[in-house]
Amino acid sequence: MSALLCIGDSHTRLIGSKPENSRFKYGRLCPAEVPGFRATHLLSIKGATAAGFRQKDHQNSPFVQATKAIKRLNPDFLVFGFGQVDAELSCYFVALRDSINLESALETRIAKLGSYLDACKDVADGRPFLIKGLNTSTLHETAALHRMVARNLHQELGLTKRQVVRALRLRKITTDVHRQLNTQLTTALSEAAQARNFPYVDLRKTTGLKERPGLSKPSFCAGGTDIHLRLAPEVESGFAQAIANKAKELLGTRLS
């Protein structure tokens, strides 16, 4: 049987069920259970972006953390799950910092997806891997979206939270705009992966509302300003099974 390592942003913690009495911690290798694998570990790096996943000298960069984890565990199969932070925060940061419209900011993030996927291939170093797509947005209230963005970005922008909220209101940023941004970025990621023949999975058909693409069903939302899908057995098992199915296609008899 094979070993699996899943590397990504904070949303990676949703993959697989967690062993009883295990303690999850961001930035550390944590155990999980995925069908067919003798061992599964998650490296969930809070705040990491697809745009920033590249070779850097900084010893704590996500790329370096991924390289160290792969060297330590020598997994047979990898999952890369970056991109959510790009949609939830980075687009707004670039738009407000550079005084450009959100569409132009989104284009800068999409332009970096190719480099992100190439970096995944480089760090995998010949191992089979797949790309996990973005989760559907969990924010149903525009006021909650504004609070979330302001809380996370005001210091980096050198603004007060109130100033960030005012800027978002002036730009008419709503949850509908946010879910459309989410959809555009994940579509671009899926297409870029497909162009490179990289396997790709997401749970958007399971978690998303058909009538409002890019937005999660309320039952999958934790509420308030929480941007993560609710940590529920159907989410954990859904990701685990989707990954197991793709891995079986690539690993064949090595996965059982």
Structure description:
The protein has 256 residues and is α/β, with parallel strands linked by helices. The protein is built from 9 helices and 8 strands. A 6-stranded mixed β-sheet has the order 2-3-1-4-5-6, with helices on both faces. It has a two-stranded antiparallel sheet with strand order 7-8. β2 and β3 form a beta hairpin. It is globular and about 55 Å long. The protein starts with a strand and ends in a 5-residue tail after the last helix.
Number of strands: 8
Identify the quaternary structure here: single chain
Q: Strand-and-helix sequence, N→C? A: EEEHEHHHEHHHEHEEH
What does the radius of gyration come to?
18 Å
Helix content: 40-55%
Question: Largest sheet, order of strands side by side?
Answer: 2-3-1-4-5-6
Strand content: 5-15%
Query: Helical element count?
Result: 9
Mean pLDDT: 93
Euclidean distance between termini CA atoms:
6 Å
Shape: globular
Structural class: alpha/beta
Name the poorly predicted regions.
Answer: none
Could you describe the largest sheet, including whether it forms a barrel?
A: 6 strands, mixed
Secondary structure: elements and pairs:
Layout: E1 2-8, E2 29-32, E3 37-44, H1 62-73, E4 77-81, H2 84-98, H3 102-110, H4 113-124, E5 129-132, H5 142-157, H6 161-170, H7 175-195, E6 200-201, H8 204-207, E7 208-209, E8 212-216, H9 233-251
Concise overview:
The chain has 256 residues and is α/β, with parallel strands linked by helices. The protein is built from 9 helices and 8 strands. Helix 2 (84-98) packs across helix 7.
